Amino acid sequence: MMFCNQCEETVKGIGCTVKGVCGNEDAIAVYQDVLVYLCQGFLYEVHSIFVSRG
Fold first, then answer.
1. What is the dihedral of CA 29, 34, 37, 43, to 10 degrees?
2. DSSP assignment of 1-54
3. CA-CA distance, 36 to 4, in Å (whole number)?
4. For residue 29, which of 48, 45, 44, 10 has the smallest C-alpha distance?
5. Which residues contact 12 (CB under 8 A, 6 or more apart)?
6. What molecular functions are annotated in GO for this chain (predicted)?
């Protein structure tokens, strides 16, 4: 099952569940979600380092 809510092309703004309007397959949507999750975690850690240095 696919759920993609990554771009402005999502159907009715609620996400694509079969195949993306943009043409993405479900595997690509999963990889993009993982990439965003990893980037958020990395940036959280970087921000924590800068805050702790004061």
1. -120
2. ---B--STTSGGGS-BSSS-TT---HHHHHHHHHHHHHHHHHHHHHHHHHHHH-
3. 13
4. 10
5. none
6. oxidoreductase activity
Segments of the chain with pLDDT less than 50: none
Joined together, the tokens standing for residue 43 give 């940036």
Pairwise CA distance, residues 22 & 44, whole Å: 30
Q: What pTM did the predictor assign?
A: 0.65
Q: Scanning the structure block, which residue is given the tokens 């702790």? A: 52
Q: How many CB atoms lie within 10 A of CB 24?
A: 19
The whole-number pLDDT of residue 54 equals 75
How far apart (Å, rounded) are the C-alpha atoms in residues 35 and 37? Answer: 5
The whole-angstrom separation of Cα 11 and Cα 32 is 18
